[in-house]
Every structure is written in C-alpha cells, then in structure tokens.
Amino acid sequence: MIWCKRLLAAGLIFSMLVPCVLAADPLSSFPDDEAATPLETPLSDPAEPSEPAETDPLEGYTFPDNWAAEPLKFAVRHGILEGHGDYNLAPTGKTTRAEMAAMLVRLMKAPLSGDLSGYSDINPNAWYCEELATAVDMGIFNGVTDTLMAPKRYITRQEAFTVLARAFGLEPQDPAAYEVFSDSNRVKPFAQEAVSALYELGCVSGYENNCVKPTAYITRQEVAALFYKLLTDICDKPSQLPETGMVLYRGTEPLPEGYHLDGSLILTSSDGSDLQDVVISDTLYLRCPRLTKVSVRDLTVNEIVVASGIELEGGNFSKLSVLAPDALVNSTASVAILKAPATLLGSYEEIHSYASHSTTVLDGTAQSVTLHTDNITLAGTGQAAAVTVHGRDCTVSLNAGQVDYQIDWLLRGVQAALTAPDSWSSFDELTVHADFTGLQTGYGTTDGQRPCNLRWYCNGTLLREEKDFLLSEGARSTIHYTPDPNTLPENLTFTVVLTCGVDRVDKSCTITADKYTLDYLRARKTVQTVNVEARTLTSTKLYTDKACSGVLQTVGANVPITHMYYSDEFDVPGQVRLADGTVGWMDWSDYVVSEKNYTQSEDYSLGTKEGFVNLNGYSSPTDYMIWLSLKTQRVNIYKGSKGSWKLIRTAPCSTGKNTTPTVSGVYSIIYKTPTWWFSEGNTKVYNVTGFWGGQAFHSRLYYHDDTLSDGTIGTPASHGCVRMMDEDCRYIYEELPENTTVVIY
Fold first, then answer.
1. What is the pLDDT of residue 689?
2. DSSP helix/strand/coil, 19
3. Confidence band (pLDDT; 50, 70, 90) for 486?
4. Rounded distance, CA 262 to CA 244, Å?
C-alpha cells in the first residue's frame, strides 16, 4: 500500500509538469531511469567506442526550497515528469483532469487504447486524447456526464484521491477512517473510501488544522507529495527491485524467481506477469492491461487484489479481492471479495459479492456464497454448498445445496406524508408532522421496528437529527419551529429525511408567509426616514452647541451636509450633521438647504407599521405610543406594550418643511394646551399636544374668524410642528396621556 503513496506523489509531479512539458512535446514518452547519452570519442582512438555515461535526470530543473522539493525530484527522477524547454514544473499550478489521466497512464506505461468520440467537448487533435482515452478505457476516469469529459477542468483533491485509489485498487480497512479530519462532512460519498484508504496508507495527513480540504483544487506539488508518500520505489528492471516497501513494477521482464518482498507490490506490466516462487508479505495489486494472463505458481502473499480485467491462474490465497469488471480467476482462496462482475473458477471457502446490478459467475466450487447488495445475478456451471441472499431483487440460478433468503428490505416501500399549515401569519410556534407507512417487517427489524437515521431541515438548515429513530408502521415524527424574524423568509420549506443503509426516503412541504408577516419581518429594512440634504456655501466653523461656545472643526466650502434643525430665534445657528456622523451647529447663512421633496405618497402597510415599532423594541410608560413617519407624512397611534404594539389609528399630517424640519428621535408628550395664537397672519391652531420644545401636534391653521388659513396636509409645510386634521389632533389631545412615547423617524 505504501507504493501507492509514492505513486500518487509522482502523479502530482507529472501533473505539475504536464502543462509545460506537454505544451512543448505533449506526446513524448517518459525517459527510463538510466537514460544515457554518448560521450565524445577521444581523438587518439576514434575507432574504439566509449562507454555511455549516465545523465542526471534532474539536470536543468529548478526545484523549490521547501517540502515539495523531494517529491518533485522523485517524480522527475522516475520519469513521471519529463521536462522540455524551460524545465518549469509550475509546482503550485492546479491540475486538470486531462493532466491527471495522462499522468496515471504514463506512470503505469499502459498501452494506448480507447476512444473519446462519444464526448462532445474533446478536441481530437489535443495532446491529451490518447492518454485520456486510455484512462477511460481502463476504467480509471469517467465523464462528468454521458457526453462531456471536461478535460480542462481542474480536478479537486477528493476527485484526485478517488482516481488514484481506483487506478490501483486501494481500499481501506476502515471505510470511516476519513472521519478523522475536521472537515470530513465535506467529503462526498463517492470519495469517502478513497480518502480513508489514502489516509491509512499515510498519503493524506491533513493540513495544520486537521482538515483535508476535499473540494479544493489539487496542485501539482501536492500530487507529487502523494506519490512520494505512497511509493517506495518504481522499478523497470528486476535488478532494481528492493526487499522492502511499497513497490511499483512496470518492467518487461518477469519477476525474479524466488523474489521476496517485505511489503506490497503493484504489477502493471503484461510482460512481467509470470510469478514463480515469489513471496510478498502484504498485498499484491494486479493492474496489468486487460486480458493479460497472470500466472502465479507457488506465490505466497497475504492478499491479492485484481484491479483490472485480467486472467489470473494458479495460487492459493487467504484473501482475493476483485475490483474490476470482466476478470477471470482460476485460483484457490479462503475468502473472495467481488465488487465487480467476474467469473470464478477454482475453489473457494467463502465468496462475498457486492457487485450490484451485475452477474457473478461461479464455474468452480464454493462452500458458501453471500450476495450482499441489490440486483445481483448468481449464475454459472459451478456449485455452492450454501447461498445466502441479503440483497434485494437478486436471482440465483447456480446449482446450490441450500439458498437462504435473509433480505433486509430497509426502506423499500416506505412513504412519508407531511401535515403542516398552509401558511404562517404569526411568530407562534409552527408544528409539522411526518407520518411513515409501508414498512416491510422481517429480517432487519425487531418487534416490527427498524432503527433509522431521521433528520429535519427548514430551508436547507438542519433543525434536528435522530440517529436512533425507531421506524414502525404508522410511526410519526414531529418538529416544532418558531420563525426567526431576522432571516426574513418568504417561504418555510420543511424536509424530513429518513435513511437506513443505502436507502433514503425524503418528503418536503412549503409553508408560505402571508403579506402581513412578510411586511412585518421586513419592516426595519422597508422603513426610511428623511435626511434633508444641504451644502456649505463657504468655509465655515462647526460649533459644539447653538450658543457657539466651542468649535468642533472648520468645514470647507461646497461640502455636503445634512440639515437637522433651524430655530426662529435671533442669531441661533442651524443644527447639521456631517458625512462622518459628526453633529454640530453652523451659521445659517453659511449653507443652503435642498428644496427636494423627500417624502413618499404611498403609506406603509399594517405589517410594516407594527413590525417597525415592535422589532425595534420601542416602549412607552403608558398604554399608547406614537410613531410619526417623516417619509410618508403619517401619524401612527398604537396601543399595547413593548413588543406587542397594535396599530389603532393612522392619520395624514404635514411636518416641517426642509428649512425648518421636524426633529427626529424619541420624545414624549410633555404638555397640552387647547389653542395657540400666532401674531403673524392673525392665525391660530387647536388641540396642541407638545412633544419637544415648541414642536407639537396641532390642527391646521385658522384665521381669527375660524376660517381655514392653510389646509396643507400630506407634504412638509410647517415650521417644525405636526399639522393634522381636526378630528385626528383632537384624538391625541383628548385620549393620549402625558409621557406617552413619541417616535419621530
């Protein structure tokens, strides 16, 4: 298994070099480890040839001064990467799918084969066509769809791990070993076993924070490091074979008779496939070209893995694993594990088939055969003493002494039905029920119950998980949920997911919020205030207070400011706010106020009005509260208490014009008087309810004879007070007690 680590590192290096190397000579082959160039012949004896001298395969390359140097050198030294032109390995560059495929094919020296004509995104003249076609033909690579290969797409780390493990038949002892990483939840199901296998082999150790970053693109130096960690040696000649480690042999000569290896061996050559009296302490991986005949005589090995569609003959093994389709095995084994369709001759104590939707052919004999997954056909001319069927929809046509059906139906036939309100219109707790029917009892159930994993989601967010939910006929699960006003959802989609083994049942329902609720939730974003724009005319001072007792700063000419308040008192400046939020007082004659109309004619909805005061947490010492909307020119009157104010009355008004705006902020009713008289124009107002200084709610202006002087309502027109219709200002005057909170915004 160690050899795989080094192979992975080498592959990454090749990937790093691929863009540079292949750009210059994409179809060039990798050099042998001992490539040589002729020396110059001495002038004294031109007729006598000189001995060839070895060239340094690293010559011309520049390697980084960090952890990636040795992995990169390993890949170049073993011919996985061959430099051309500027010898630039681009170690931090991202690896494409085509580069990864070419790297693996060249690493194994696989004969070129295959056809990519079925993929619409392939350029037949591209450098990668033959290698990529070979990788697909070998079953290492698949298209991203039935018609797309995406050769130039960058490959992620988990995808790279998967094709590497698939290439050599690397499987984990513990399929859940990947969970050691802090971000294991991001590892997709298709990659979980590959990540586990490479972790167990020491190829993948994670980053400093113990994350594996499965969805990140893998760089060339990272692939090189994987190969470097995986493989102890890559050998092309028997003389190069070591005595220990994880070894890849791709030579054209057979393994030496009597060769002993304390470790694991990967065999990729069709010419070196005759193994006589060979001892391998761990695992033999057979990745020879399809239809290669591998003969093993007196082979001693702990485990043998068939990773390609070869013909294996001879041998007596403790464990045999067949991972590639169309393999033909004529051997003897205590345990045979099948994860792909295969034909078995010979004799076996146990055969375990996991090859779903395929046919397992036994033309030999077996003491027992177990079909673990669904849709397996067991056929052949052989015989099994006993067959146990765990998978659903399996067919046994083999001659068997006994067939025992122990089928766990899991969730086959189970249906879920959700019961929920059609809509939600308040922030009270919502209740959703899930009822399950159609459970098939029997094998795998106890007292009519089956343990399952159940999860509830709302809008994709996990609400609750029950890892030991006991499913029975008619079982119910209930979720209670209170909407979060900060998330502002238009719809609440509840989903229940029930899983058991490979089966999954899920059901969703959507509860739509009514308009009131949506308006309520969005009130704080919907409601706008009025900021009266102004601009300085000349360079002027900004004072700390209206008495001009101190200077905050000097403000230049033509600077945008916000006008907040103007007093009719003699020599009193205007209150302004700078762009950075600084508030101060400025000489009235030094700035000009915009005449723009900042109000809107459309009033806010009931949901917006109640949401604004309740979500902002306004309170009042009385049972009433007022919100004056400067933007809509409306006075809104509420009754209730903090968090539960209800709108009881709304009325149009006219607030201060731009030059003399109504103050903003939170105030309270501080005085009441029945009438105000104004000497200017001999006018008066009724039902005066003051909330700040000389600003108050009151009626429109009337002459001394009670004829209407100014009936403006709905647009700013006053000197700061809030003009209202007679009946509306009278209601405030008569019904709302002093100290009632007044919010002006």
1. 98
2. helix
3. low
4. 5
Please write down the HEC assignment for all residues of 643-683: CCCEEEEEEEEECECCCCCCCCEEEECCEEEEEEEECHHHE
Write out the two tokens for 422.
């059609």
Place of tokens 């070591």: 242
What is the pLDDT, as a whole number, of residue 14?
A: 35
User: Residue with structure tokens 């093994």?
Assistant: 317
The verdict on pTM exceeding 0.85 is: no
Q: Residue 226's closest CA among 133, 136, 103, 87?
A: 103
Q: Band of the pLDDT at 598, cuts 50, 70, 90?
A: very high
The whole-angstrom distance between residue 528's C-alpha and the CA centroid of its chain comes to 36
Amino acid at 425: S
Q: What are the φ and ψ backbone dihedral angles of 284, each rounded to 5 degrees?
A: -105, 120
**Tens digit of each residue's pLDDT (9 = 90 or more) over 626-660:** 999 999 999 999 999 999 999 999 999 999 999 99
Least confident of 88-92, 566-570, 580-584, 696-700: 566-570
pLDDT at 40 over 90: no
Residue type, 117: S
Q: Which two tokens stand for residue 175?
A: 């399929």
- 46 pLDDT band (50/70/90 cuts)? very low
> Beta strands 540-543 and 551-555: pairing type?
antiparallel
* Alpha carbon separation from 1 to 138, 198, 208, 230, 537 (Å, rounded): 20, 9, 24, 7, 81
First to last CA, the chain: 71
Q: List, in sequence order, every residue forming a beta bridge with 430; answer none if it has no partner.
A: 481
| Contact yes or no for 538/550 (Cβ under 8 A) | no
Token pair of 745 as six digits: 């915004």
- CA distances (Å), origin 659, targets 467, 593, 715: 67, 6, 14
Tens of pLDDT, residues 326-337: 999 999 999 999
Using one digit for the tens of pLDDT, what is the confidence trace for 654-688?
A: 999 999 999 999 999 999 999 999 877 789 999 99
Q: How confident is the model at residue 309 (pLDDT cuts 50, 70, 90)?
A: very high
Q: Express the helix, strand and coil content of the chain in percent, nearest 5 each.
A: 20, 35, 45
Label residue 375 left, alpha or beta by phi (over 0 means left) and psi (-120 to 50 means alpha). Answer: left
Residue carrying the six token digits 């027992």: 368
CB atoms near residue 65 (< 10 Å): 7
Burial 470-499 (b: 16+ CB within 10 A, else e): ebeeebebebebebebeeebeebebbbbbb
Cβ proximity of 218 and 156 under 8 Å: yes
In order, the DSSP letters of 447-513 are TTBEEEEEEEEETTEEEEEEEEEEE-TT-EEEEEE---TTT--SEEEEEEEEEETTEEEEEEEEEEE
What residues does 575 pair with on adjacent strands?
565, 585
Helix axes 97-108, 157-168, angle to 10 degrees: 20
Q: How far apart are CA 470 and CA 445, in angstroms?
A: 10
